[in-house]
Amino acid sequence: MRKLKTIIFDMDGTLADTEEIHRQAFNQTFNEFQLDWHWSKTEYRRLLGISGGKERIRLCLKAKKTVADEHESLWKLAEIIHQRKSEIYREKLVSGHIQLRPGVERLIYEAKRENICLGIATSSCKENLHTLLHNTLGSNALSLFDAIVTSDTIEDKKPSPAVYQFVLSELGVEPCNGIALEDTRNGNLAALAAGLKTVITIHEFTFDNDFESASLVIDQLGEPAQPFSVIHGNSYGAQFVDVALMRTIVSPVHQVNMNVLVNNQIAATAS
Length: 271
What we know:
alpha/beta, Rossmann fold, about 45% helix
């Protein structure tokens, strides 16, 4: 029988609402490099369909013919620009006092108490992740996660399932016993292709993505006093995401058994 053994988090847009910070960092970098680019929110929403900052920069370089069309030249310049952009992004994370999205910290600590393995599968780099975790969960944040896989380890970007497959391998958990938290169409496709169930938390840059086959699409994980709104899927009556809801999504028979238990208790009380 399916049993929840691991919860795997995406990073950007899932752990924290960082995409606007990324967009600002890109534009500031373009100014520094004297590139006549400015990614509006509408343009950046479209570009998020391409996983990886270097990949987005390279595509724009090629389209605008800023440099010769040789693959090596494009990639080298994209790497230089992206390295500076990442530095600016991390500076903004620290100075902006970034916070985790609602429900994230609560779910992490609840999962640890319930002995659920935690993983992170991101197309971002290790240094970006460490900066985010350190400034939101403290200096011991990395120890909360049993497996962390970034673009420093896996080059194949989502929707490739490679990053999720690597995390599952590190954890020693079968896909049927795991669930992924994501925020983009590519992330959803990657997790599904790896055999995981998915819960999606949308934001201003992904509200119009196609999240076909996701188990649940909501606006946030929610808190007891701050319930989520369901966009698509079955929340089984829950108002915020907790381990119990995750268990039910992974193994719906768990919900059936719980319903039987509750009904039996009600019947016993009535008699």
